UniProtKB/TrEMBL annotation:
Pfam families: HTH_1 (PF00126), LysR_substrate (PF03466)
Residue ranges of every copy of the HTH lysR-type domain listed in the record: 1-59
InterPro entries (UniProt xref): LysR-type_TF_proteobact-type, LysR_HTH_N, LysR_subst-bd, WH-like_DNA-bd_sf, WH_DNA-bd_sf
Name of the protein: LysR family transcriptional regulator
Superkingdom to which the source organism belongs: Bacteria
Annotated family: Belongs to the LysR transcriptional regulatory family.
Annotated keywords: DNA-binding, Transcription, Transcription regulation
Length: 301
């Protein structure tokens, strides 16, 4: 007898509370259902069910076997579903969210290429610097840069973004240019919540990474707001290169501490579950991983 079919008959008998329930579900005779169950018990060498004229009950071995059968049958169903999806053209909507500056400068051209490859997929994109609630707001995917809060979400690393330390020429003219990370304590520093640990920046000094305590008049979760504040001379900003380099290119900001590497921040894709991931979502994540395999920003490492 087919073992998987026998397991399915066993589970249906337990769920339905009788052999008759399994017989009706599978279109089998009562005798054939009994044959499936006897075959399982004989092959396992244990008693799975206790049968009376009025009641069906699981033995201890049967209860354990029932739970394992549920998982095995679910895995088989998932495998069949995935196999069928591979034959289907990926189509339909995907909702994703990403940081504003990263989305506008780096993500947009990548998604255009993705849609050209998979024209039946429709992307619904929200660019925001806040941490959206994937389940509550109906997002399939979120891109995050920097520290990840503790959550039940699945995270896959896609790549990294270089970090830069910058200030406006006017600020440096008034307050001087720091020559060493330790001198930042005497400066007005603008830092990003959710990207770095509040009040802490890091640099490589003499071959070792050191953490520098900083303080200043502005804390924000918005890269754009911090960048604009730095351009207006409010202080020194430490943030992802992709957000700061356009202002550097225009001369609105000047890199400082260029001789001290700040490493990179990880870029992650966050989603709800590996178990029930659709083919189109898996394709998108794999595509993003391939395109962001090199660090984003100037002086990529």
């Amino acid at each position: 007898m087919d073992r998987v079919t026998s397991m399915a008959v066993f589970v249906r008998s337990v769920d339905g509370g009788s052999l008759a329930a399994a017989a009706r579900h599978f279109g089998l005779s009562h005798a054939m259902v009994s044959k499936h169950l006897r075959g399982l018990e004989q092959s396992l060498g244990v008693r799975l069910l206790t049968l009376t004229t009025r009641k069906l009950a699981l033995t201890e071995a049967g209860d354990n076997y029932y739970r394992r059968c549920l998982q095995i049958l679910a895995d088989i169903e998932d495998a069949n579903r995935e196999a069928m999806q591979l034959q289907a053209v990926p189509r339909g909507p995907l909702r994703l969210t990403a940081p504003v500056a990263f989305g506008e400068q780096y993500l947009a051209p990548v998604l255009v290429d993705f849609l050209e490859r998979y024209p039946e997929i429709v992307l619904d994109i929200e660019l925001t610097d806040r941490f959206a609630d994937l389940a509550g707001e109906g997002f399939d995917l979120a891109l995050r840069i920097g520290r990840l809060p503790d959550s039940s979400l699945v995270a896959r690393r896609l790549g990294a973004s270089r970090m830069l330390t910058c200030a406006a020429p006017a600020y440096l003219a008034r307050h001087g240019t720091p020559a060493h990370p330790s001198e930042l304590a005497a400066h007005r520093c603008l830092y990003l919540n959710g990207v770095t640990t509040p009040g802490e920046w890091w640099y490589e000094v003499d071959g070792s990474q050191v953490t520098v305590r900083v303080d200043g008049p502005l804390r924000s979760n918005s890269v754009a707001l911090a960048c604009q504040s730095a351009r207006q001379g409010l202080g020194i900003v430490f943030g992802p290169a992709f957000a700061l380099e356009p202002s550097v290119a225009k001369g609105d900001l000047v890199p400082v501490l260029a001789g001290f590497s700040s490493g990179a921040l990880d870029i992650h894709a966050l989603y709800l579950s590996k178990r029930h991931m659709s083919k189109k979502l898996r394709l998108l994540i794999d595509f993003l991983a391939s395109r962001f395999s090199r660090p984003v920003g100037t002086d990529a490492v």
